[in-house]
Design a protein that fits this description.
By secondary structure, the protein is α+β, with helices and mostly antiparallel strands. Helices cover 25% and strands 28% of the residues. It has 3 domains: 106 residues, no CATH class; 31 residues, no CATH class; 135 residues, Nucleoside Triphosphate Pyrophosphohydrolase (Alpha-Beta Complex), CATH 3.90.79.
Amino acid sequence: MNPGFTGSPLDRADRLRSDVDGYAAVLSDWRARILTLDGLDPVVTADGGLAWSTIAEIHVEAELILLGLADEKPHFVPLVEAEGDVFRSPAIWRALSMLPAEDAAIYGTARSLIDWHNSHKYCGKCGGSTSLFRAGWGRKCTACAKEHFPRTDPVVIMLAEYDGKALIGRQSRFPPGNYSALAGFLEPGESMEEAVRREIHEEAGVQCVAVRYVTSQPWPFGGSQLMMACIAEAHGDAITLDTNELEDAMWVTKAQAKDALTGADARVFNAPPPFAIAHTLLKYWAEED
């Protein structure tokens, strides 16, 4: 099981982030590679990989974030000022469907860091402006010197299971026919299992008891998130929708899930794309004995 945005081949090189001399050396390395972006979207080469340039090939005015090392070559992404919405960018969905898993993982890291920097230009303690430090893995307030570091928000994403069927739902912003697993942020003072049960009940009115963890995935859109995929045992199959959260929800069999995952003509819904953990979770459940 290899969820999307995992499997980056880069050594994150934490040892260089606070090493002034070591970081200066990688910045001046003529072999350094710079990730090419179109706004916030990845640029895909003719052979389907991420596009890179060398420092010698381009003049970089933006600050650089060190993504890591591969074969001792430093890899950077420029800190661009841009906004993006994955649900309204067909270009990024096409790019992610083409990229190898390793390249998607590299892009996911870059996108998460850029979004974090663009939303943390001011100190949450005193309101002063912040500046990049630690090779792009932090910001420091220019007024009170408070240090800020990238954070990941925990999210549960889950299937409720009852009588051999799984519960899936759709939001109004989804393309027609698309369904996915239910999901929601963990709240303060809440365990992962409690969040799974609460979200399923809040969104679909279904009561669950036993919860089992399946896998996790970093998700770089809408803020950096860690998606924790679970399956919950439901008490019954009666659905009471929260229409502020979901447009529709339904129970599907494993055969119907397999049809959706393979794109069969007879499918009753469209599955999430392969790089989404909802796809991984649905596939795991459909193939489980």
